[in-house]
Amino acid sequence: MTDCSATDAKNISGTFELPSSAEEGYERAMRDAMARMEKGFPMGEIPKLNREALHDRTPLWLREPR
Q: How does pLDDT run across 49-62, given as a tens digit for each residue?
């Protein structure tokens, strides 16, 4: 049987703690991302277009300049 030194015990315990801390980091990142999505992002003003403007089939070269 081999002796287990204090540094070996620290190294072993560090490997067991890594998954839980990685899992906590993942969960925190997910919560932060969801909070940002729920808050929304400023997208600027959305132009108000009517149906005709959205579905205009007039070729570009025949349209009048705005």
A: 788 777 777 777 77
Q: Which amino acid is at 26?
A: Y
Q: What is the DSSP string of 21-52?
A: HHHHHHHHHHHHHHHHHHH-----PPP---HH
Question: How far apart are alpha carbons 12 and 5 in whole angstroms?
Answer: 11
Vertex 10, ends 30 and 1: CA angle to 5°? 130
CA–CA gap between residue 42 and residue 12 (Å, rounded): 47
Q: Which pTM was predicted?
A: 0.39
